[in-house]
Specification:
The chain has about 250 residues and is mainly α. The protein has 13 helices and no strands.
């Protein structure tokens, strides 16, 4: 969805909610959550923004808003809009973390947002952002070692850095500063941990399969990717994750 379309949807929702101004924050959240479950990000966001005005320091609202901005970024094809929406999501996640520094979900939101933005950043910004992802996910796991989402992000972080060639790493170090090191083996361990904690998310299986493919473990790669592909789409990222899984399977033929 483009920003213009979002504004039109926002206006419609604002007018409807203004007409029902007696709604409490809890009622607004219930309405927004219903939109969120259907992945109607623009509608959910419009309601959450109204709730934020009533309770601007509500961490749960701020995290919900960050999530919708991430979803809107995912839905647009324009790189510039993806980054603009991602940076807005990041601001809300950071606000939540400043209000609740001991809430693991606030740091997880920061890590997720940075991760979503990373592929669309320039090289210098990618180098600067990589350690920020690691810091946010480490803080999440310090507060909640059983966060399967955090283990997944840490796995992807390791896999992404492990894929960078020595030449590219040296060039990045010369131009922008040294990159952290990642490990395929560590990536696999993190994703195996994510599956152990929550075996019901297809993204864990497919991402682990992709790591196994990098490690040359082709049979394991096929096994885990196919397991993920056989699971129903439940989360916003599931269709995209399945596409990546199928692309990896094609390369294994």
């Amino acid at each position: 969805m483009t920003l213009a379309k979002f504004c039109n949807v926002s206006l419609a929702i604002v007018l409807s909610c203004t007409a029902a101004s007696a709604e409490s924050v809890d009622e607004l959240l219930e309405k927004g959550d219903a939109f969120d479950r259907r992945f109607e990000a623009a509608k959910a966001l419009s309601v959450y923004l109204i709730a934020e005005k009533a309770d601007p320091k509500n961490v749960g609202i701020l995290l919900r808003i960050a999530r919708q901005y991430r979803h809107l970024a995912q839905d647009t094809s324009a790189k510039k809009e993806k980054l603009e929406l991602g940076r807005t999501a990041l601001l809300y996640a950071q606000r939540a973390a400043s209000l609740a520094p001991n809430d693991p979900e606030t740091h997880l939101s920061i890590a997720i947002t940075y991760g979503k933005m990373l592929p669309f950043m320039g090289s210098k910004e990618q180098v600067e952002t990589s350690p920020r992802i690691k810091n946010a996910v480490d803080r999440t796991l310090q507060l909640d070692p059983r966060s399967d989402s955090a283990w997944h992000i840490l796995g992807r972080w390791n896999r992404t850095l492990a894929e960078i060639s020595g030449l590219k790493r040296a060039l990045a170090g010369t131009l922008y500063g040294s990159l952290p090191k990642g490990s395929k083996e560590e990536a696999a361990k993190c994703l195996e941990k994510a599956i152990a904690l929550n075996p019901n998310r297809l993204m864990h299986y497919i991402e682990l399969g992709r790591v196994y493919a990098l490690m040359g473990r082709k049979n394991d790669a096929r096994k885990f990717i196919n397991k993920g592909l056989a699971m129903p789409d439940v989360e916003k990222d599931d269709p995209e994750m399945k596409t990546k899984g199928r692309e990896t399977l094609e390369k294994l033929r």
